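Re: export button greyed out
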Amino acid sequence: MVTASSLTKRFGELVAVDGLTFSLHSGTVTGFLGPNGAGKTTTLRLLLGLADPTSGEALVFGRRYRELDDPARRVGAVLESNDFHPGRSGRDHLRTLALAAEIPRGRVEEVLELVELEPVAARRVKTYSLGMRQRLGLAGALLGDPELLILDEPANGLDPAGVHWLRGFLRRFAEQGRTVLVSSHVLAEVAQTVDQVVIIDRGRLLTTGPLGDLTERGRTLEEVYLELTARGAR
Amino acid sequence: MTAQLRAELLKHRSTFTNLGLLLGMLGLVLLAVLLHALSLPADRLDSASNQVEVFRFGPLLGTLFAGLVGALSITGEIRHGTIRPTFLVTPRRGRVLAAKIVASGLVGTVFGLVAVGVAVGVGSAALAARGIPITLEGGDYTLMPAGGIAAAALWAPIGLGLGALLRSQVATLIAIFLWLFFVENLLIDFVPGVGRFAPGAAAAAITGLDRETLLAPALGALLLALYAAAAATAGVTATLRRDVP
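Workaround output, generated via the alternate export path:
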């Protein structure tokens, strides 16, 4: 479903992603973890065709994202929490995306209802709180009813009720046989939501596998994570 | 590409950016036309060539603002980050840019139409109010508006191509202003043989202005179309090759 093979991205001297290999299976929620600057966002950008790898390959449904025929109906993604024109209403933002993807207008209202933004949909995005922007971004990702969701730090700015709602939403999404890749650095939150993890540091894979395998013998995800990333720093 | 075009047209309609630009352009056209039509002595406004100098602010400002519309249609998306969802939904970036070229060309045409219409209408009314007879001939009256609108339509893709290359909104807008109002003036004043081939001079040439210095209107149109194609091609090529910001 999602595969990275020897994925590498250099920016001049800096190696942001360094020979990364991992894959995701359908019906799972995978937590994509690593310290700030580990290369998480760059990896997601490579998967989503916004950046091209220096070497290696990132495939989604067996193809490069830029070659997918109808990407909005297969993949939904949110990379930044504020990718909106401040003067455009939330509803019009979604309508521009729906028009480009040839998604019926009624679906815009459906996703607005789903993320509970209907009451403010006519307001300009500049009046939205961070939590509302996160939900608007998610609504955009869900427009095409995709099989795969890729979210970069989706819990940022959500209040406890919002985090709870998001966790339930992602679990239900995966239970329908669909797939989620979610990057985060809130480990306590991740431990409650994901069933697989991919942990990277300085562009390299530290470990990947089911959360249950990592946290056997009563260790917490935090302990495992800190040990792995500390070893990488040495 | 129809789907992308409809999306781009909605982007133009769903913010106040274009309305603000349109109002700014109208204000400048009114100011420039009225200042000339009302404050110059009557004996400097009676010949056809003098009257063209009054009306020319319509095509000139229409062209400038169409260029700004084109530039903002890509740099605005980069600045606000909407370029990411745009390219996630349509990862064939060439389709998005083709739609942007058509959409901003259409909006640029409207800007040209409004600027030329207001300049000719208000300029004629101001001259009539002072009792100065209009000495422009039918040919001038056709060529200037038609040329002004065509120049605006072609300057939108020029602005867009430049914006796609530079990517910074501020840098693109400054570059367009500096080029049209500073560099080209210097070129026309000091090396007119070179300056007449510049994109702003080509736009002025289409409207039939100053035929001693500038190119013939048809030649100006052809040259400006080449500039538009070159700028659009450069912008598309750069966008296909570089990573999305």
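The first helix of chain B runs from residue 2 to 13. The button fix ships in the next patch.
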